[in-house]
Design a protein that fits this description.
Number of helices: 7
Number of strands: 0
Mean pLDDT: 78
Largest sheet: none
CATH topology: Four Helix Bundle (Hemerythrin (Met), subunit A)
Number of domains: 1
Oligomer: single chain
CATH superfamily: Flagellar protein FliS
Radius of gyration: 17 Å
Amino acid sequence: MFGLNQNGANLYAKVSMETGVLAANPNKLIVMLYEGAITACRSAIEHMQQRDIVNKGNKLTKAILIIENGLRASLDKKAGGEVATSLDALYGYMSMRLMQANIRNKPELVIEVIALLASLKEAWEQIEPGQAKTQSLSETLPKVSAAKPYAVENRNIASYAKV
């Protein structure tokens, strides 16, 4: 009996998410990718604590795929220049840390990635849909060092992604 209700809730959530994707502007889609990666990471930590290796691996894989195939793949290195290159390095760093977390079963590595994702998500949430086109790149892009891709100095992000 409870399985049917849970299945119905899952179907409702899936339809709701799909509707949100269809109705979202490009900036909102990026925010949704961050939310998905953060949710997968949080679930992975729960599975680590429960010693559920299979589901831990599945959730970390999901987060890595979102980072690699969603966030990293959406970068426009021509328009974003150095910032897009730095974000590319940051996304690579996050994926590497999640792989290490999976192999070593270290939730602190996942927590580190969650903090980075949350910081970037917060910056994207502050962007108005047309803002990126009206400001210069130097005013809107965060300062991310390719040498230290995990250090984001400015949280005001603009259109360095293909959105």
